[in-house]
Structures are given as C-alpha cells and as structure tokens.
C-alpha cells in the first residue's frame, strides 16, 4: 500500500536529518529533470477552465494512473483511459485551488515509515528503497511525485466524502442479514436431460458454428527457433570469488540470509556464519550475468552491423556450428506464452514485437530475452507465423457438434426450470404451502435446514451450495421462496424461507461495526466518484486531441 500510519520517528535525529536533506535535494533536482511548466503550457495538451494544461503535472498524473493500472493488473484492471487522466488532473487542480499542499517533509515521513522499504532491522533502508523502485520501473523523483498526487487526492477525498451519513436502520438490517439464522426448506429439480438422448441435424450443427465463431477463433500464433543459455552452465566460469564483492552482495541481499526464530523475530545471520551460503548465492548471481552476456554476444553476430552483413547466415546452422543446441517451439499466442520458459511474459513480448512480415534475419531475431537476474536467457528468431483466423467448419466439426449438443441440453434444462418456477408461483399464489407446491411440480423435497452466513462460510456447511443459498435467502422474507434456483450437483435447487431468528448478540455487535464501516466506505466511494465526474464536467475540459472511451467523450458534436 502507498501510505501507512506514522508510528515512530527515527531515533537517530542525524540519520533522519540526512535522509530529509536527500529527499529535498531530489525534489529540487526535479526542477531540472522534469519538463518545465512554462514549456509545458505551450505544448498543446489542452485547456482546463480556459487555462493551458500544466504539462509537467499532467505527465505526473498520467504516470500515477499508469502506476495504479499496473498495481491492479492482477485483478484484471491493467488499463487506464485518458478520461481517467483528465479526471484526476482536474481534481488535483481543484485541490491546489483549495490550498491542499503536501509538503516534502510529509512525503519523506511516509517513505521513511513504509514497511515496504524497511531492511532486516525493520527501519528504512535506502538500498531496499532503490530496489523496490527499480522493480516498479520508477525513479525516486517520479515515485515521490506519484506519492504526492496520492496524498493530495486522499486529503481532497476526506473533505468531499467523509461526512457521508449512513442511517442506523440500514446498518441494523445489514447486520441482521449477516447474523440471523434462517430455516429453509430445499426442493431440487433433478436434471434428467441426457446428451446421449439428444440428436442434432447437420444444419443445426452448422448454424451453431455460424452463430458462435468466437468460440473457435484462433489468435495470431508464432513459433521460434531458439538457443537457451542456462546460468547453471556458466557456474564453472565464475572463477575466484572476490571477498569484497561477496561482502557487498551480502549487505545488498540480507533478505536472502534472514531467519525467523521460534519467537517469530527475524534476524540476519552474521556473514561469518553463512559465508559459504553467501558465496554460493553470489556465484549463482554471477553465472546468471554470464549467461545473459553470452546470449547478448551470440545475438550480436546476427544483429550487430559492425560484425558484417548477415546475408546468407542461417540461425540454426550457425548456432549448431558454435556448439549450441537449437529447439523450435510450438505455436503460441501473445497472451498464452510457453510456460516452460522462466521469463514467459518477457519471452512472449519479445517474440510478438518482431514484424511478422520481416524477411531478413536481422529483422526476424529478437533482442536477447531474459536478464541478469533470470536463470535462463534466450536468443530467438521468428520461425513461423499463423495469423488470427477462424478455422473452417470441417476442421472443428467434432468440437462444434459437442458444444452444440451441450448447449441444447442446457437450454432444455433452463426451459424445465422456467416451467417449474411458473408452477410453483401459481400453486403458492393459490394458497398452497411451498412443500405442497414443490411436490406437485415434481421436485425432490428435502428436510428443513437452519442456516446462517457464518454456517455457509464454515468448514462443513449444512446444505449444498450454501454460499449461493445465503446470497439468495437474504433477499427473501419469511414465507417466500427463491425464484432463482441455485446450481447443485444433480440439477437446480429452489428453497423457501420458513423462519428467521436473531443470531448471537455478541456476534451481532461485531458484524454491526463491520457493516457500518462497509456501508460508510461504499457511500463515501459513491460520493467521491460522483464528485470527480462532476468536477471534470464543470472544469470545462478542452483537450487538444479529442478523446473517446467507454464512459463518453468531450468530442464536439456540432459539426
């Protein structure tokens, strides 16, 4: 996370002073390294409230959005839009108008106390700080400016949305939903539809293929010839280890030599106690560097003009002549790289950066793949390109028939569910109990089950698909039944809520506090997002390059 609560100042005031001075120097250097504001205002980004956009601030905001997108990539949100950049830029401008300024000392304090940048002794370590930023492809100056944007927006958000009021009745209802116990009566509709009993006409299969070509479309795929340079093959070339370099390696990588005691306290093993371990790790690191250097040297013979023309060169023949083994990969796509390579993502990126229409060897070979920190490095040359396409029907006929059969069976079961749902509703509306209506509709009636949210998320839920049942039953009143059945092993399960009783009072108190926090945050989030959107609109953005995305556009429609 970006920010943590400040707990303790550094006890050594001289160390703190030196750190603060270094950070201030870094901020001062930003005036030299980053684009000047005067120049930026003339480069034509656009206008906000009639004033030229500050190019330096805009660039920082864009980096901020890109950084957040990267942090969210694991959740499937790895992209950002220019609307987001303009929205954030307008918010930061408004914050400055309101006098919200984050001093350098506050940023230094945040960095100093961020556990992500702590060393083995749990205090700030500049080497760890530098390493973490390198991992994120950031310089200290850029990180500090991104941090400034984050702190500015956090303060602005506090002013905008912290006064959000959540009615106690809403909190009470949410807490009861999470702690009350419900008595439910399940009734299962058994799926008797059998794929083996379904027959399809040839025209039905072809129609399914035409209507679902997206299921069979293949992305562009490529294969390469490659030579692998394994770090283990270069361990013998490391040679005599320099004691000073080993010491430097130990001091820079103390996390590798940290142990946790029985009391949970982590300590760094003294160098003299783990010297052999450090030398082994250092030699392994050196072998990685040698492997990567060997890959780069081999690639240079094909791509470096200084070494002469590559006319007539053959990658595989030259590699074998040089004593290297050549392998050819199977076809793979940009999003599904070959998993056997230790840098699969970088491997795919490098291969798909090659021009698929390249003819000359110098244009078909990728830059060395890997790094001085990877166990394997590679030199690859484009071997085959299979363009994105939809295979002909005859090539995928068996798969189409299988999918079409499954689709027809699933559609039949959905029709059964709709029929039973109508029958249940009619019977219950006629005054019959859920049990009577279920039996008349041919459902397999179960026995009463007492269920709460806690039960559903426990180790042994008392009912199948308990979490799905809980999500549905919370929306039902006493005596009502679920119109939307939940999937179970044999088919789909309807159920009725027969009774509802309050849960344990102590648990209710805990859940009530959690519910209040969640509702407060949700309301605060809604207010904040609404304000951001409104602030952008009222700031009259006039981008020099009209942008459009899924949320709308400021493109002029008068033409």
Task: Describe, in plain words, how this protein is organized in 3D.
The protein is α+β, with helices and mostly antiparallel strands. Helix content is 47%, strand content 13%. It is built from 19 helices and 16 strands. The protein has helices spanning 13-33, 37-40, 55-71, 82-97, 104-112, 126-135, 140-161, 168-179, 202-211, 243-252, 275-303, 315-321, 344-351, 361-364, 397-429, 434-440, 453-456, 466-473, 505-538, and strands at 46-48, 51-52, 181-190, 221-230, 258-260, 266-268, 327-328, 332-333, 376-386, 444-445, 449-451, 486-488, 491-501, 542-543, 548-549, 552-553. The strands form 5 sheets. Strands 3, 10, 11, 12 and 13 form a 5-stranded antiparallel beta sheet that branches. Strands 4, 7, 8 and 9 form a 4-stranded antiparallel beta sheet that branches. Strands 2-1-14 form a 3-stranded antiparallel beta sheet, with no helix packed on it. Strand 1 (46-48) and strand 2 form a beta hairpin. Helix 1 crosses helix 5 (104-112) and helix 8 (168-179) packs across helix 19. The chain is extended. It starts with 12 loop residues before the first helix and ends in a 6-residue tail after the last strand.
């Amino acid at each position: 996370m970006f920010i943590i609560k400040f707990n303790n100042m550094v006890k050594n005031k001289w160390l703190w002073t030196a750190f603060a001075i270094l950070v201030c120097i870094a901020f001062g250097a930003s005036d030299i390294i980053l684009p000047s504001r005067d120049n930026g205002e003339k480069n034509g980004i656009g206008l906000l409230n009639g004033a030229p956009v500050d190019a330096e601030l805009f660039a920082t905001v864009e980096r901020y959005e890109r950084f957040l997108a990267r942090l969210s990539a694991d959740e499937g949100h790895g992209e950002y839009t220019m609307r987001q950049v303009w929205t954030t830029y307008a918010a930061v401008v408004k914050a400055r108008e309101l006098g919200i300024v984050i001093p350098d000392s506050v940023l230094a304090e945040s960095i100093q106390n961020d556990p992500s940048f702590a060393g083995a002794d749990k205090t700030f370590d500049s080497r760890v700080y530098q390493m973490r930023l390198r991992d994120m492809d950031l310089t200290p100056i850029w990180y500090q400016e991104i941090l400034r944007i984050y702190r500015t927006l956090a303060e602005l958000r506090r002013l905008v949305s912290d006064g959000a009021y959540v009615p106690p009745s809403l909190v009470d209802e949410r807490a009861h939903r999470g702690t009350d116990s419900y008595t439910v009566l399940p009734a299962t509709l058994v799926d008797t539809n059998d794929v083996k009993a379904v027959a399809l006409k040839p025209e039905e299969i072809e129609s399914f293929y035409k209507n679902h070509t997206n299921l069979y479309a293949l992305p562009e795929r490529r294969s390469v010839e490659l030579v692998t340079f394994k770090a283990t093959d270069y361990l013998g070339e490391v040679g005599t280890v320099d004691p000073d370099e080993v010491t430097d390696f130990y001091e820079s990588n103390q996390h590798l030599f940290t142990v946790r005691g029985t009391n949970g306290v982590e300590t760094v093993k003294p160098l003299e106690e783990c010297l052999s371990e450090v030398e082994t790790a250092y030699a392994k690191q050196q072998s990685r560097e040698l492997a990567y250097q060997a890959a780069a040297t081999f690639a240079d013979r094909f791509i470096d003009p200084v070494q002469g023309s590559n006319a007539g060169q053959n990658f595989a023949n030259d590699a074998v002549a040089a004593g290297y083994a050549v392998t050819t990969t199977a076809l793979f796509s940009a999003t599904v790289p070959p998993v056997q390579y230790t840098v699969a993502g970088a491997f795919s990126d490098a291969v798909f950066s090659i021009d698929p229409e390249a003819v000359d060897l110098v244009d078909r070979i990728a830059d060395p793949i890997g790094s001085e920190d990877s166990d394997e490095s590679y030199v690859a040359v484009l071997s085959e390109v299979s363009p994105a396409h939809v295979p002909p029907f005859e090539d995928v006929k068996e798969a189409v028939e299988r999918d079409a059969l499954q689709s027809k069976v699933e559609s039949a079961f959905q029709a059964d569910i709709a029929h039973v749902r109508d029958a249940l509703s009619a019977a219950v509306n006629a005054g019959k109990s859920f049990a009577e209506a279920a039996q008349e509709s041919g459902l397999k009636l179960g026995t009463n089950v007492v269920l709460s949210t806690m039960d559903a998320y426990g180790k042994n839920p008392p009912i199948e698909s308990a979490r799905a049942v809980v999500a549905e039953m919370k929306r039902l009143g006493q005596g009502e039944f679920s119109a939307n059945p939940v999937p179970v092993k044999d088919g789909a399960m309807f159920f009725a809520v027969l009774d509802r009783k309050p849960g344990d009072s102590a648990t209710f108190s805990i859940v009530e506090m959690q519910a209040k926090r969640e509702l407060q945050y949700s309301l605060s989030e809604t207010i904040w997002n609404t304000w951001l959107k409104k602030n952008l609109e009222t700031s009259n953005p006039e981008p020099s390059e009209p942008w459009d995305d899924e949320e709308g556009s400021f493109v002029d429609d008068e033409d």
